[in-house]
Specification:
Layout lengths: L2 H23 L6 H18 L2 E6 L7 E4 L5 H9 L3 E5 L8 H7 L3 E3 L4 H16 L4 E3 L20 H6 L3 E9 L17 H10 L3 E7 L10 H17 L1
Parallel strand pairs: 1-7, 2-5, 2-6, 3-4, 3-5
Antiparallel strand pairs: 6-7
Organism: Massilia psychrophila
Pathway: Lipid metabolism
GO molecular function, one term: 1-acylglycerol-3-phosphate O-acyltransferase activity
Length: about 240
């Protein structure tokens, strides 16, 4: 292990410890605004340690159902560094060392693949959160996809925006190198482990995370399949640009 990687790993470790302390000592007594501020700052610091430079485009809505393509474990922290959300994520994320617990403390709802009971529970929670004015996000592909590819968007959770009467805002995520090409170390697909992905990112060159907040879609009166198709089309067009 080279010195640069060892230093970065130690910084990540101490930042995770700091995050644990915030969740244990601050979150139980903090209001929503302070929690969001803490999540935003912590996420930005994590990205900085990992050599990730955030490049946001467009305007995020303060109250919406956010849907984005899914590339890496970095996605949650890239989005949270801009405007924290209550996430719906696959249950495997809960098993990530330390980070899984941290994202759970930030209000993430975990769903097991193919578990209809989890899906119904998550759906009710999403509608309630949206009706309370919270900002909710999920990855409708259901899993990560290699950069340059976009998997079909599952429509089920789009129904939450319809029931709550809120807009759906698609986000397009790309991770680029200094030359503007797709970054080679960010993909989190196949058999790669969380640890191996983390080491690859920390060992590599700087990553430019381009997060494009696209025009929102009206959910009132729409069908969830139409919303999913329109969101996927918007994200695909943004990625192609």
């Amino acid at each position: 292990m080279n010195i640069k990687l060892a230093v970065r790993l130690s910084r990540v470790f101490f930042h995770l410890v700091f995050g644990l302390a915030i969740c244990a000592l601050v979150f139980p007594w903090a209001g929503a605004a302070r929690r969001d501020q803490s999540i935003r700052r912590w996420s930005r610091r994590l990205l900085g340690i990992c050599g990730v430079i955030l490049e946001p485009q467009g305007e995020p809505l303060a109250h919406a159902l956010v849907v984005a393509n899914h590339v890496s474990w970095l996605d949650i922290f890239v989005i949270n560094s801009l405007h924290p959300c209550r996430f719906v994520a696959k249950s495997e994320i809960r098993a990530w060392p330390v980070l899984g617990w941290l994202v759970a403390q930030a209000g993430t709802v975990f769903i097991a693949r193919g578990n209809r009971r989890d899906l119904r529970h998550a759906f009710k929670g999403l509608v309630h959160s949206l009706e309370q004015g919270e900002r909710v996000a999920f990855f409708p592909e259901g899993t990560t996809a290699a950069q340059g590819a976009l998997m079909p968007f599952h429509a089920n959770l789009f129904e939450a925006a319809i029931d709550a009467g809120v807009m759906v805002q698609p986000y397009a995520l790309q991770y680029l190198d200094t030359k503007g090409a797709l970054h080679p170390t960010v993909d989190f697909t196949g058999d790669i482990t969380f640890a191996a992905s983390t080491i690859a990112i920390l060992s590599g060159a700087a990553v430019h995370a381009r997060l494009v907040c696209l025009p929102a879609l009206e959910a009132r009166g729409a069908h969830r399949r139409e919303l999913a198709a329109d969101a996927a089309e918007a994200v695909a067009a943004a990625l192609a640009r």
